[in-house]
Structure of Late embryogenesis abundant protein:
Amino acid sequence: MKKVFLAVLALSMTASVLTSCKEVEKKAEDAAEATESALEEAGDNLKEAGDDLKEAGENAMDKAKEVGEEMKEGAESAMDSIKKAGENLKEGAEKMGADAKDAMTKAGDEVKDAANKVAKEVEEATDDH
């Protein structure tokens, strides 16, 4: 009876160990599946982050190009304004020069007329005497 009892006890322990091993194997499979799922999700998240980063880089490049174009247009506008101001200054200087020439000619004519008048008066005065 003792032998039977030991045999039953041994069989019981063997069954317990086998059941325990099957549970460990099942838990290991579950953990492997969870790990695989987590790795797939992490891969998807990394891909999504990479796509977002690429999109952000493209947006930044587009914005930089836009700002560059605006700066170029601003510089061209400033150059046009400077050119126009230079043309206006040149026209003003030319007009001032023409006006000064006209004024000098007029003043010269007035001095000449005055000199002729004085000469005529002097001549008349000397003729009268």
Remarks:
- Helices lie at 2-128.
- The chain has a mean pLDDT of 84.
- The radius of gyration is 55 Å.
